[in-house]
Amino acid sequence: MSTARDEILDRVRSALARSAAPEPVVRAYRRGGNGAHPQVVDLLCERLADYKAEVRRVGADDLPAAIAETCTARGVVRLVVPPGLPHAWRPAELEVVEDHGLTPRELDALDGVVTACTLAIAETGTLVLSAQPDEGRRALTLVPDVHICIVREHQVVDGVPAAFAQLDAVARRPLTLVSGPSATSDIELSRVEGVHGPRQLVVLVAP
After folding, report:
1. CB 127 within 8 A of CB 135
2. What is the CA radius of gyration of the chain?
3. Helix (H, G, I), strand (E, B), or coil: what is residue 1?
4. pTM (predicted TM-score)
5. Strands of the sheet with 176-178, listed across from one edge
6. Whole-number Å distance between alpha carbons of 97 and 136
């Protein structure tokens, strides 16, 4: 048995000795990308709409009014916001609650949440949140039924490599990647929304 094994190993060694050195693997991965320009922002809006998110393009001065209109249209009466959200974005006609460690039960009793985002990825239609003061902690965007997210055009990048190149600065923060409202499908492909997060995602894109 030992002789047969040695013979086989000798044949393997001979074959390896005769073979040419392997070609080096070319790793020409895309490691960067382009920042925001009109086509990239348009692509983001298209992808978000494909994922059944509501997307609105609004002017910077119209942002407070657009937030209030969205809340009214979605039946949001009690709104939770992260502590760092600009006061101009908080609808005066609604009950606005700042999140200072609200429990899941307390968050569930609120109708919606308004946050900013760190950046948005056009190719995948993804919003990236990194727990910044105007974005809040992860639970804030997972428990309320309606999530209104504000995206500024300069925050939009074309692809994932460009996004992660920018995210180096916040690498130690928890990242939440959102591509459309929460949804899942069973074995019969019946779509169910709101299982793992908000059933409704509204994205307001402003300059």
Report:
1. no
2. 24
3. coil
4. 0.80
5. 156-157, 119-121, 126-129, 176-178
6. 13
Whether residue 111 contacts residue 78, with contact meaning beta carbons closer than 8 Å, is answered with: yes
Q: Where are the beta strands (DSSP E) in 25-160?
A: 54-57, 78-81, 95-98, 112-115, 119-121, 126-129, 146-152, 156-157
User: How many angstroms separate the CA atoms of 39 and 157, rounded?
Assistant: 11
CA dist 207 and 203 (Å) reads 13
- Kindly state the tokens that stand for 171: 């690498």
130 Cβ contact list (under 8 Å, min separation 6): 118, 167, 170, 173, 174, 175, 176
Assess contact for 36 and 153: CB atoms under 8 A. yes
110 vs 190: which has the higher pLDDT: 110
Range from 147-161, 163-177, 190-204 that averages highest in pLDDT: 147-161
| pLDDT, tens only, 12-51 | 888 877 766 677 878 777 766 766 688 999 999 999 999 8
For 29, the token pair is 């991965």
